[in-house]
Amino acid sequence: MKTFPMFLQMKDRKVVIAGGGEQAAQKTRLILKTEARIEVWAPELEDELAGLADAGRIVHCTQAPTPQSFEGSALAFVATGCPGADMALHALAKLGGATVNVVDQPALCDALTPSIVDRDPVVIAIGTEGTAPVLARQIKTQMEQALEPRLGELAALAGRLRHAAMARLAPRDRRDLWRWVFKGAPRKAFARGSEREAARLIKDAIQTGDVGQNAGGSVALVGAGPGAKDLITLRGVQRLQEADVIFYDRLVDPEILELARRDAERVYVGKKPGCHAWPQSKITNMLVSAAQHGQRVVRLKCGDPGIFARGAEELAALEEAGIAVEIVPGVTAASGAAAASGQMLTERGEIDQLVLTTGHLDDGPHAPDWLAQLKPGACVALYMAVSSAPMIEQKLRGSAFGKLVKIEIVADAQRANQKILTCAPGQLAATLKHNDIHNSAMIFLRLPKSAVQPVRQPLRIVEPA
Question: Whole-model pTM?
Answer without folding.
Answer: 0.65
